[in-house]
Amino acid sequence: LVQLSTGEYHPAASKPCIAVCEGPFVPGECSLSVEIVGNRLGLLLNFPFTQIEPCESAFYLIDWRTGHPYFFREAEHGTYDAFAFLNADTVVLPNLHLHTLELCDVFSPPSPSSPAPLRTLRRLALPPLAVHAIPFRIWCRAEPTPTGGRAQRTAPEEARTRAPFRPAPSAAIVLFNIFILDTRQRLHTHSLVLHRAALLRPYRAQSLPSSPSPSSPSPEPEPRAEDDDEDAPERLREHPASDSSHTPLIPWSTWGPPACRLFPADALATRWITTTCGQRFVLNSPLRRAALHPEPAHLCDFN
Fold first, then answer.
1. Given phi > 0 = left and psi -120 to 50 = alpha, else beta, which region is 240?
2. Does 224 map to a domain?
3. Quick one: where's region Disordered (predicted)?
4. Would 5 be classed as within a structural domain?
5. What is the pLDDT of residues 69-98, one digit of tens each?
6. Strand 119-125 with 246-250, pairing
7. What is the domain range of residue 127?
8. Which CA distances in Å does 229 have to 70, 141, 170, 226, 283?
9. Of the N and C termini of the chain, which has fewer Cβ atoms inside 10 Å?
């Protein structure tokens, strides 16, 4: 953990080097996703090309200041490719195999020993696939990330006031790039855009048995402090059926059409990490296509 302004170990981290796990070492065959919100560091590890002995997808949530773990989840190889914080207490994990968005609670005091199993609050169904279509990958991104409460910030307050503008994380959009194989094994891409707040709304759910993810009671949570962050969004309301044996499933027809925009993205560049900021989304062509047929970039504003 390095402080960008100095290049030295971060002074707020009691363990600047945190041992997370051990995995197979094959150069270029580890996929890593990292997001930091307040004291929470989310880490998703995949080894997508280890076909002989496929490794499971592994998600870790760690207190980066102390090095203590919050939560952990393992799932079948390729289940999760990305994640995003919706607010300081909630992450969304697109589940490739179930074709759903899993909203998970990450509010809990860290444990000095072992992490608790990550608990799914509810699942949002993605648009139904055509017959014989095969989901290949689901990637997501939302900018900016939430900041956590004032007590968790390390940057001085004057640095925030100097910024000419700063989009509110609570009003930002989330981008999901969905990659699908057709019957001829051709890859197609669709970009799904919606606001963070749309994922946090309460919806009428179908209560179905949860997926075989590890689930056991989490440590007794500490009382939640009142939000002192002006950008803190509405907290996710837990559905009454959300218990250890059932995970509410929200059908696509219930939540999706009013909240989402779906773009065919075969002709768009989807490799760039950041193409959204706040409520704006930039659509541009891949470099090879742009060299042959120059096209202007398009800016969509979802305000």
1. alpha
2. no
3. 205-250
4. no
5. 999 999 998 899 999 999 999 999 999 999
6. parallel
7. 32-152+167-210+233-276
8. 22, 22, 11, 9, 31
9. C
